[in-house]
Amino acid sequence: MEIGIVELSRLQFAMTAMYHFLFVPLTLGLSIIVAIMETVYVMTGRPIWRQMTKFWGTLFGINFVLGVATGITMEFQFGMNWSYYSHYVGDIFGAPLAIEGLMAFFLEATFVGLFFFGWDKLSKVQHLVVAWLVAIGSNFSALWILIANGWMQNPVGAEFNPMTMRMEMTSFFEVMFNEVAQAKFVHTVSAGYVTAAVFVLGVSAWYLLQNRHVDLARRSIAVAASFGLASALSVVVLGDESGYSATHSQKMKLAAIEAMWETEPAPAPFTVFGFPDQAARETHYAVHIPFAMGLIGTRSLDTQIPGIAELVAQAGDRIRSGLVAYDALMDVRALREATPAETRATFDAHAGDLGFAFLLKKYVDDPRDATEAQIALAAGDTVPTVWPLFWAFRVMVALGFAFIATMAYFFWRASFCGMRFPRPALWLAVAMIPAPWIAAEMGWFVAEFGRQPWTVDGVLPTAMSVSHLSVTELALTLAGFVAFYTVLFVIEMALMLKFIRKGPYLDVAETESWRAARRDRLAPSAIATPAE
């Protein structure tokens, strides 16, 4: 494949986004876990919970700072690499990003400072409020960013203005409560909670294997397992909701994920395994679960899910409809206020398909000059490459069920087996630390790669969205970003490993004072100093 401006721009943004999302899920989840630990400290007064809060809070702070550093660059890229996209849909896409900066990020950033430097200046309750405000701010940031991204997947609450040649918002309420955005938000933050739970579980398991910080590790495993089990179950349930919303908002993406080449009789089966062959439009060695896809995608037994071939034919019809809109648009642009009412009515009737006519610009400067063969090619372009989507989705789902099993096991051991964990299970927890990041990156790959060839689904093709840059400029900036982000990633790993090896700071005087004050009420095992 020839690498051009579009491909390099996509690669650069994908690289920065995937690097950035190495930090985001841990930030989302650790902020909640730290707030839960401090809540227990305030309720019980036990020093160990304060030490746990400080230790995991330190790791949260490292991750938060580097996440901010990698995230800022992404927003600049909209203007640098995707200037026509910014011009075309900036009125809608920019609004939630601005709110995120003004409402969520400022809230989060302000109270992060109070969290780290306010331990001896704020009361217990005041500091607890700060911890929860940090957690709320982190999750609010995700909400507004995912509202913006959700609109790209399902562009509601906006319409095209032929006078300005831009999309304009018609309903902020529809943009905010877009079903795709809301499903993506709850699914993404739940995945972040799982990421943090697996991280806390794995690090705590490593301490137990080393026979260090045993008291802290056991309690951390109890929190991580219970929080992680609830989160892992919610990820699966909320992922099902995302699949259901895709049935009527992103049908081609769903068909590609399932390698569903032809429309199946309702209810459609779910393909567990197979090797998609896009050239032959079939899946070799496919293993199906009858009825499962129909139930997941439509929640019924009698509703069909359209296959790729049917959707390509529909895309061809929409391209022809879009050509009518494009022809009327050229008249409106030329005549402006003098445009006849019937011309404007024609445009309004076909405006929803205008983006499909833009797909022809890949083959011809003026879409109205396109041949039937070019229309067929453009319709075929609406099919993303199937096999990466097919396998990325299945890796993500398999890991999701693995998280449920792991968290359920550790929850059982922590709740009913006296917090005793077999060494093989502890080693498994340590080995599983990278798995949530793999699942999260697979999820984002499915979401973004599955939307191609669109930047805004059905509205603006990716090929039209890029800035007028040279291949050399893009290659050099891509190399620079890779180098810069790699340095940040190395710094992150070095700092996290340094503080994990160092372990928590145990305030012996505070702990002994607490034990002495409660000596008559504590069991002998609680009075004894735990092995470190």
UniProtKB/TrEMBL annotation:
Record GO cellular component, one term: cytochrome complex
Pfam families: Cyt_bd_oxida_I (PF01654)
GO BP terms in the entry: aerobic electron transport chain
Entry's localization field: Cell inner membrane
InterPro entries the UniProt entry points to: Cyt-d_ubiquinol_oxidase_su_1
Residue stretches spanning the membrane: 20-43, 55-72, 92-117, 129-152, 185-209, 221-239, 391-412, 424-447, 474-497
Claim: Metal-binding is one of the keywords in the record: yes
Signal peptide boundaries: none
Protein keywords: Cell inner membrane, Cell membrane, Electron transport, Heme, Iron, Membrane, Metal-binding, Transmembrane, Transmembrane helix, Transport
GO molecular function: electron transfer activity; heme binding; metal ion binding; oxidoreductase activity, acting on diphenols and related substances as donors, oxygen as acceptor
Keyword Amino-acid biosynthesis: no
Topological category with respect to the lipid bilayer: Multi-pass membrane protein
Family: Belongs to the cytochrome ubiquinol oxidase subunit 1 family.
PANTHER family per UniProt: CYTOCHROME BD-I UBIQUINOL OXIDASE SUBUNIT 1, CYTOCHROME D UBIQUINOL OXIDASE
Protein name: Cytochrome bd-I ubiquinol oxidase subunit 1 apoprotein
